[in-house]
Amino acid sequence: MVITCGEMRKLLFIILFFIFLFSTAFFSGCKPTDEAETFDLDIDLASIQKPVDLPEYSLEIEWFDSNGDTTSFVRNKPVMILFNGYSEFSRKESLTLPEDIYGPSSPVVSSGISANLKRDLSYYWRKLVPQFNVGVFHYENFADDATNILNSKIYQSSACSYKTDGDVISSVEFNLTEAFFSAWKKVIDQNLLTGSDGMSILEVRFIGNSVGANLAISCADYIFAAYEQNLIPSFYVPNRLTLTNPWFSNDVDSLTTVDFRKDVSINSALKYNEQRIRELAQKGVVFEIIEGDPYFYSSYSNKYDGCTELIFGENTKLVWEDGEDTDLYDSIKSNSAYLTFTETFSTQYSDSYKKYDRAILDWYLYSAGGSDSSSITTLRAGFKPVYDSWGHPSVTHNSYTESTTNGYSMKYGISAWTPTTYIRAVRGVEYTMKIYNSAGSTDNVMTKFQSEARQMSNMTMVNGFFICGYIYQSDISGSFVDLRPGKGLSSYTFGIVATPDEEYSTTEQIFTVKTEEDGFYKCMLNEDLYACNIRINLVAPSPTHQFYPEEEIKTGNVWELSDVNSIGRDGISATMYGTENSNFYIMIRNCGFFIQE
């Protein structure tokens, strides 16, 4: 068959057209748009006018050193900021555990750790690698109120009031979300960060307790919008939110409006926060929730729709079915790593301390130091790992080497110590506290305060056998994954080839993987690949994209690879040793690109 010049031109046009379509689809998540964007959030950059009768520290972020003393913000370190729940106006929030509750002679603390427990919990955060700036946002004068009223103050200036000596109540012309943004912007203005600082990572974590969780979510939402509107740099956007005993009331609240959103009312704390969590998670914010109230669903004026309690003698069984409230809560859990925490040590708190609902928060802040179990010897970043399925034969408590072929898998629990990339990997996974034994497992209740919670997830080799990680581009030199928004390569498509051990199968499997909006990918494997060699086939997104230099690629101990760049070239190979008896296995491999000018 003879092709004419005209037909050849048509054929060439068709080929070029499909190449264009392919390239557009391939990089749709990375390509900036020229279209004008409209934003739902109205960001106010003006500093708030703080009332003169408030304490000097009020509506400010206070930074702490490892001794619990006030210090200055360090611009090349990651950040953790705490948002407390209810507080009295005369009480100043800190990261120091009270001696009468957690002192050496206290019945609350486990005898195994009482002698070495650092009550200044900032100590554990300052010892992490990299070391954290540790801060508290002070709004105690506003937090001395009923929880539902405090929740309204987060969003609506006309509902925002504070208390001072003599129980004097005064109003302000701003809401608490705007108040925090004003305080955070002071940090931004004083410490403008650029890639030239040579820092390896600036991870920003928010921790919110009770209704403080709602404030943390709202502040993250507001800050993300400020970044999207090019009002602040990406360094200051929170990457990870930890919510301890969050106040997700289903009570209808049509009176509270959101000042910074167009024609939006709260409806209910549950519904509003579900939407914000879902949106932020899609953009890359990593969520973890630790719930310590076994009856949270009935602790509001109205029990969650979709919950039924069946009583059998002295036992109560919860039936969780489809319903408006249960569906919203399930959506929140699907966008978070979720731990149900069971403890009784808080029953020994004084009445004056119980009202702050801090048991789970105190545990989480302390868990930055890793596990305090004497049975664990492996160290990661100076601390012992917090394991998932602690005691399971497939979890080793000893150092791992590349030559190890049995008895090892990456199994972390939820904790402040756990790398953010791992918490992202277990989004949608549920953890409970159980003690593993030869007969299976039994429920575990923490009767004394300690870090080791004996967590066990609902992952198995069916839903927990996968390889995942971030594919990202960064202008910062360093080995840590760049978690800033806009750095993940979305819709980036690549191949993974899995060659199984012949004991299970001889059929090689090829997977096509596509990254999500935040640059994260996840490739589920199957029982034919219990023990397999994984080959990751990556191609630089463009001629100007280059793999990171070899000296910035971390290799070796798998425990150390979860939050660092571990792919430095196309076709990297690794072996996954999951077996039918090892419960589950997660491998995390990240790849960073830099753009060569």
Distance between the termini: 47 Å
Determine Rg (CA atoms, Å): 25 Å
Estimate the mean pLDDT confidence.
Answer: 88
Unreliable segments of 5+ consecutive residues: 1-36, 399-407
Per the CATH scheme, the topology name of the domain at 77-93 and 138-291 and 293-340 is Rossmann fold
Explain what the structure shows.
With 597 residues, the protein is α/β, with parallel strands linked by helices. Among the domains are: 219 residues, Rossmann fold (3-Layer(aba) Sandwich); 130 residues, Immunoglobulin-like (Sandwich). It is 20% helix and 23% strand. The chain contains 12 helices and 27 strands. Strands 1, 2, 3, 4, 7, 8, 11, 14, 15, 16 and 17 form an 11-stranded mixed β-sheet that branches. Strands 18, 21, 23, 24, 26 and 27 form a 6-stranded mixed β-sheet that branches. A hairpin with a 3-residue loop joins β5 and β6. α7 packs across α8 and α8 packs parallel to α9. The longest helix has 22 residues. It starts with a helix and ends with a strand.
